[in-house]
């Protein structure tokens, strides 16, 4: 089994279950290592409805630390960080002052549109799909340039409700972003939560995973679990996706240093 590097906690206000339950779920599945990557707090009140407040961060650290008790699987401390215009001001110092194992970056907003939020899904009805994807990838270019992150979470998230550009447009938009990800030594996450969403497909799509492979961008795996039952969700399919793209290795990370290890056999 593969490590699950994307697990949330109740501090984000939209997850259920105790951190120990997530770990015991992982243990049952034979997952060797998990990383909690809960939504990071921001001091400017950014999207406070879906994340811990800044003063709750110490209790997040304590929750994870309490799992450093010699039991398996091993538990890493991570965060899922939203990239948006102006976030660097706070994040650059705040992230480097803390001992994270893993900093996963994500984009959930285009300006003030939470494009993956079910309550804002209707905005897609009047949106220009290709232009929206273009805007998303333009944010990702700045995201990569910021150098703040170890990996990109759910890289093609705008497909969540089934809105997609043509493959030709997607390729053209994704190419400069993937080039820069590779140049920055950043990884990407194969995130199985897309299988639980209307699109019914892992993030990112086989096309993007193949493009990432061409550039030797390292991969990791995440379930984006918001309840214990989602830990390791259909990782078999994510492993198949990685192999079909030609991957033979994935990365593990400790204190923000990646190490490549062979994908499991079989
Ligand atoms: Zn969440
Ligand atoms: Zn996310």
User: So what's the CATH class?
Assistant: Alpha Beta
* Helical amount: 25-40%
- How far from one another are the termini? 11 Å
Average pLDDT over all residues: 96
Strand order within the widest sheet?
1-2-3-4-5-6-7
Number of domains: 1
**Low-confidence parts, pLDDT < 50 over ≥5 residues?**
none
Major β-sheet, in short?
Answer: 7 strands, parallel
Structural class: alpha/beta
For the record, the CATH architecture stands as Alpha-Beta Barrel
CATH-defined superfamily: Metal-dependent hydrolases
Number of helices: 7
Shape: globular
Number of DSSP strands?
A: 9
- Please state roughly what percent of the residues sit in beta strands, choosing from under 5%, 5-15%, 15-25%, 25-35%, 35-45% or over 45%: 15-25%
Q: What name does CATH use for the topology?
A: TIM Barrel
Q: Cofactors and ligands present?
A: zinc ion
Radius of gyration, rounded?
17 Å
Order of helices and strands: EHEHEHEHEHEHEHEE
Pfam family, one: PHP_C
Keywords: Amino-acid biosynthesis, Histidine biosynthesis, Hydrolase
Pathway: Amino-acid biosynthesis; L-histidine biosynthesis; L-histidine from 5-phospho-alpha-D-ribose 1-diphosphate: step 8/9
Protein name: Histidinol-phosphatase
């Amino acid at each position: 089994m593969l490590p699950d590097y994307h697990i949330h906690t109740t501090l984000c206000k939209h997850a259920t279950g105790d951190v120990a339950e997530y770990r015991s779920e992982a243990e049952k599945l034979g997952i060797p290592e998990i990383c909690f990557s809960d939504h990071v707090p921001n001091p400017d009140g950014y999207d406070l409805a879906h994340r811990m407040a800044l003063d709750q961060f110490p209790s997040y650290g304590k929750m994870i630390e309490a799992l450093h008790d010699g039991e398996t699987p091993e538990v890493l401390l991570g965060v899922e960080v939203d990239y948006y215009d102006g976030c660097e001001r706070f994040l650059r110092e705040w992230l480097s002052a803390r001992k994270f194992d893993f900093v996963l970056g994500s984009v959930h907003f285009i300006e003030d549109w939470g494009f993956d939020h079910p309550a804002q899904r209707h905005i897609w009805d009047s949106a220009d799909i290709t232009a929206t994807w273009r805007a998303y990838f333009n944010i990702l270019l700045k995201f990569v340039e910021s150098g703040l992150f170890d990996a990109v979470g759910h890289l093609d998230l705008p497909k969540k409700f089934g809105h997609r550009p043509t493959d030709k447009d997607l390729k053209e938009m994704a190419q400069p972003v993937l080039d820069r990800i590779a140049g920055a030594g950043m990884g990407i996450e194969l995130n199985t939560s897309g299988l639980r969403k209307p699109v019914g497909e892992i993030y990112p799509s086989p096309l993007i995973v193949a493009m990432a492979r061409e550039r030797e961008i390292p991969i990791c795996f995440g379930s984006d679990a918001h309840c214990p039952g989602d830990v390791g969700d259909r990782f078999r399919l994510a492993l198949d996706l990685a192999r079909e793209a030609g991957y033979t290795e994935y990365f593990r990370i400790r204190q923000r240093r990646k190490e490549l290890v062979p994908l499991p056999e079989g």
